[in-house]
From TrEMBL:
The keyword Transmembrane helix does not apply. One of its GO terms (molecular function) is peptidyl-prolyl cis-trans isomerase activity. The keyword Isomerase applies. SUPFAM superfamilies: FKBP-like. Residues 38-124 form the PPIase FKBP-type domain. Belongs to the FKBP-type PPIase family. Pfam families: FKBP_C (PF00254). Its EC number is 5.2.1.8. Keywords: Isomerase, Rotamase. This is Peptidyl-prolyl cis-trans isomerase. Gene3D superfamilies: 3.10.50.40. It catalyses: [protein]-peptidylproline (omega=180) = [protein]-peptidylproline (omega=0).
Length: 124
């Protein structure tokens, strides 16, 4: 939806130690339909490693949003997206246990604290 957040976000560097719990920050509050725990969401997102500041994934870079049932996403997204409204932009700081698990659990991002900026484009 072109009327919402038309540009790739810039990540604000996170001050302080990596959090032990999910940190949710609304960058822009939406006015559309609200995402619920069982929703399927259409989002644009940017993911950055907290420690290095390096981008590891971005729907913006691929030029298209993603559409997924919330239940199939990492725990940080399952907890951090509900309550968000279409048109909103939210930053999630996900510690390893809410992202890809502890170091050595098989994913290239396991053991990492990750920052995501998510634009909610649609909910169904």
């Amino acid at each position: 939806m072109s009327e919402f957040n038309r540009t790739k976000p810039e990540i604000e560097f996170f001050d302080g130690d990596a959090p032990d719990d999910l940190v949710v920050t609304d960058v822009e509050v939406g006015t559309g339909a609200e995402a619920l725990p069982g929703s399927t969401v259409d989002v644009h997102y940017l993911g950055v490693d907290l420690e290095s500041g390096e981008e590891f994934d971005s729907s913006w870079s691929r030029g298209q949003s993603i559409n997924f049932p919330l239940g199939s996403l990492i725990a940080g997204w399952q907890q951090g997206i509900p309550g968000m409204k279409v048109g909103g932009r939210r930053q999630l700081v996900c510690p390893p246990h809410l992202a890809y698990g502890p170091a050595g659990s098989g994913h290239r991002l396991s053991g990492r604290t990750l920052i995501f900026v998510i634009d909610l484009l649609g909910v169904s």
